[in-house]
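To: structure subgroup
Subject: Chain for Friday's discussion

All,

I'm putting the inputs and outputs inline so they're searchable in the archive.
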Amino acid sequence: MQQMDELPKRNDWFDSFARKTSMFCGKPIVFLGAVLIVVVWAATGPIFHYSDTWQLVINTGTTIVTFLMVFLIQNTQNRDSLAVQVKLADLIIAVEGAHNKLANCEELSEEELEKLHEGYRQQASVAEKELESRRGQKNPKAANRKKEMAES
């Protein structure tokens, strides 16, 4: 497989906007700004006699921000998930003895993934028992202490 020296440049304006916005909105100062807006809104309640319009301002503002942030967060999550999948696929393919079929397992159905997961869970259980038996042979005192601690 040919080694990629450079990742392709991203020119998509929405990806760029979503990445920058998510980085900005994840900062503590943005959270504090949102808290300040809510505090100012709450403090103006008596001035506006807690009117329907006063309540509508915060409801409309939060609804619009939430609606827009859902799409930005989903874009960021999709990109991050895909990046992790690519990195894991690269590791799986590079490791000798690894099952290369796992490199694109995200394409499997949920049922197929569950079967695959159960198979690996069983393999992990067998490997754990094997490891414990090896440890017990090398250091029987440690194995006995572990058993005593588990029983008490």
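Points worth raising on Friday:
The CA atoms of residues 10 and 45 lie 46 Å apart.
The chain has a mean pLDDT of 84.

D.
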